[in-house]
């Protein structure tokens, strides 16, 4: 069988997912819904809403709008195997076609779509991301399409058609990072996932070997191809590798450095006024993502190591309120961003070890130097958020929504919900 056929057969009849996998899925869905609410008034979301203002909206348009909102403030989770903001695409795409489905079906489809993203990501490898492709709107589109088709009840043949169509809809480049179009990439991917599944139901089809064939996805988008695997008894990817929910509402490429600052502040009580200069050493792809040394607006600030570090040193935390036009203007005037520098590991260093830490070096005014490294950010399976931290983030994102604490508890029991109509209050 081709890669698409192999994946489609697994998606049509996956193994029974463990209690732990389903619990982790509920946590990821709740986190995404909170981010979706927090992003509904962002410029990118409002732009999409203005462009497609007619009512009633189609399923694909609903996916577009809500996925843009989910990714708008860059507070949504990262997913390493898919090189993507997996949930920001997958959850809104599933919600768009979830009418008359129950919570258990939604959770199951989420786990199918997530594993599909991991499968495609493993097939084409990290070269896809380092070449400049935005995995959220490429791999995210293809994998989410599998989840949508499964939720619609399509069989293996239909899911395979869906996947082939989605390959032709996968696009989006990282050069758009720091602009309102980046969150639109998530919306575009969710819309394309729904469109691919809808087209497949009409009988539309493409090549089943479109990932591995000449002039296919792997050759054009990555240049390499590996043989990916699918879980049987060794656990779902959400259990083995996990999601990376965010502690900070900014690009994930800053997070290990920001967590290193938090470590030092907690251990040594360091103050911003004690620091002469800061240097951050990060991975090449992370360095390329952080293109704005002197951000001019809130979107650029989310992709500025200098801005994020300056605020973290000053306040000890980053919040959604630090990424408004007014806050960025105030902080960039007050902060000495030029004293914060950034450099990548070399190509040779990354070739020797693909799992390098991010290193923070603080030079203090008294002549001391503090060096601290982090291999992982907070929120991974190695250092997961507590239940209190997850709930606090959801409440913060949904601060204007009455009863958000009760809503969070309902989402934690999503599998037991026979009627998921209540989720509409979280959608636009």
TrEMBL record:
Q: Where is the MmgE/PrpD N-terminal domain?
A: 6-223
Signal peptide span per the entry?
Answer: none
For this chain, one GO molecular function annotation is: lyase activity
Domain of life assignment: Bacteria
Q: Tell me the ranges covered by the MmgE/PrpD C-terminal domain, including all copies.
A: 248-403
Q: Which InterPro entries match?
A: MmgE/PrpD_sf, MmgE/PrpD_sf_1, MmgE/PrpD_sf_2, MmgE_PrpD, MmgE_PrpD_C, MmgE_PrpD_N
What family is it from?
A: Belongs to the PrpD family.
Q: What is this protein called?
A: MmgE/PrpD family protein
Q: What is the lineage of its organism?
A: Bacteria, Pseudomonadati, Pseudomonadota, Gammaproteobacteria, Enterobacterales
């Amino acid at each position: 069988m081709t890669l698409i056929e192999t994946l489609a057969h697994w998606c049509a009849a996956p193994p029974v997912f463990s209690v732990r996998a389903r619990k982790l899925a509920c946590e990821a869905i709740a986190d995404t819904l909170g981010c979706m609410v927090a992003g509904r008034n962002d410029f990118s979301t409002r732009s999409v809403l203005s462009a497609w203002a007619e009512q009633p909206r189609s399923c694909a348009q609903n996916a577009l709008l809500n996925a843009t909102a989910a990714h708008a403030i860059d507070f949504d989770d990262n997913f390493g195997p898919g090189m993507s903001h997996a949930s920001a695409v997958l959850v809104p795409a599933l919600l768009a076609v979830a009418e008359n489905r129950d919570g258990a079906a939604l959770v199951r489809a989420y786990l199918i779509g997530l594993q599909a993203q991991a499968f495609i990501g493993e097939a084409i490898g990290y070269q896809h991301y380092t070449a400049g492709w935005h995995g959220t709107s490429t791999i995210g589109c293809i994998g989410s399409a599998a989840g949508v088709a499964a939720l619609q009840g399509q069989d293996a043949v239909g899911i395979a058609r869906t996947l082939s169509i989605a390959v032709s809809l996968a696009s989006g480049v990282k050069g758009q990072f720091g602009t309102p179009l980046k969150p639109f990439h998530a919306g575009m991917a969710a819309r394309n996932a729904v469109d691919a599944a809808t087209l497949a139901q009409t009988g539309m089809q493409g090549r089943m070997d479109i990932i591995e064939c000449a002039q296919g996805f792997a050759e054009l988008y990555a240049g390499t191809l590996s043989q990916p695997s699918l879980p049987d008894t060794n656990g779902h990817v959400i259990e083995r590798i996990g999601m990376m929910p965010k502690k900070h509402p900014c690009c994930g490429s800053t997070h290990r450095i920001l967590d290193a600052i938090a470590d030092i502040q907690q251990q040594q009580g360091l103050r911003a006024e004690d620091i002469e200069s800061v240097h951050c050493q990060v991975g090449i792809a992370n360095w390329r993502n952080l293109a704005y040394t002197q951000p001019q607006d809130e979107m650029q600030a989310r992709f500025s190591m200098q801005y994020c570090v300056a605020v973290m040193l000053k306040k000890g935390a980053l919040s959604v309120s630090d990424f408004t036009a007014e806050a960025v203007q105030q902080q960039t005037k007050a902060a000495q961003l030029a004293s914060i520098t950034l450099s990548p590991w070399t190509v040779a260093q990354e070739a020797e070890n693909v799992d390098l830490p991010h290193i923070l070096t603080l030079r203090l005014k008294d002549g001391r130097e503090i060096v601290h490294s982090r291999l992982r950010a907070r929120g991974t399976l190695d250092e997961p958020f507590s239940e209190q931290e997850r709930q606090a983030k959801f409440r913060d994102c949904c601060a204007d929504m009455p009863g958000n604490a009760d809503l969070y508890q309902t989402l934690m029991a999503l599998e037991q919900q026979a009627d998921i109509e209540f989720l509409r209050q979280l959608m636009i």
